[in-house]
Design goal:
- Strand 4 and strand 5 (45-49) form a beta hairpin.
- Helix content is 0%, strand content 33%.
- The chain is globular.
- The two termini are 31 Å apart.
- The chain contains no helices and 13 strands.
């Protein structure tokens, strides 16, 4: 899902199909901001979430609100959520700054540098919600950044037996497109 508050605060409600009093009653959530600076307010506590920063929100959080710092450059919150069986603490997650410890109350994502220029798949995988960064029930979430001149992000081709994988592309020039070829690695 997504939330792009412009001039007003957006509140996350629940759905009839969830049969819960609030959205995160039995769910957990991950959010990465792919737009301008924003604020996520969780049960009254505010978290400033900048461009390419994220947050893990644990089960049991009753009130979730999204706000942009500047309506002319609104935050664009990309959201993933999954069922949860245990409440884990909320964690703000950012990309590491060389040689500096993470700010208090903030965790650095794990960065994996993969691929090659020759293979056109040189990239950095920023693992936001993963065991080395924060605990979650079953949600994993990250952001892959391709190096200039690279066009592939999942080579070698692979499948996941026990989980799904979701892609959302941004910063794509209007003159370019994304094509996904799917199937088993032998096809």
């Amino acid at each position: 899902g997504g939330a792009m508050p412009v001039k007003e605060t957006l509140s996350l409600g629940t759905l009839k199909e969830l049969a819960t009093g609030y959205f995160l009653e039995r769910r957990e959530m991950g959010v990465i901001n792919i737009g301008g600076a924003g604020v996520i307010t969780l049960d009254g506590k505010k978290y400033d979430i900048g461009f390419k920063e994220g947050i893990y929100i644990g089960m049991g959080t009753k009130q979730v609100e999204f706000t942009s710092a500047d309506p002319k450059n609104p935050a664009k919150f990309y959201i993933n959520s999954s069922p949860a069986h245990k409440a884990y603490p909320t964690v703000k997650i950012v990309k590491p700054v060389d040689g500096k410890p993470s700010p208090e109350g903030v965790k650095y994502c794990v960065q994996r540098h993969l691929g090659t220029e020759a293979g056109m798949n040189k990239r950095t995988i920023n693992q936001f919600i993963i065991g080395d960064v924060c605990e979650s029930c079953q949600l994993a979430m990250g952001m892959t950044e391709l190096a200039e001149g690279s066009g592939w992000n999942t080579l070698p081709s692979h499948t996941h037996e026990r989980r799904m994988e979701v892609y959302m592309y941004f910063e794509l020039p209007e003159t370019e497109a994304v094509i996904h070829l799917m199937g088993t690695p032998q096809e």
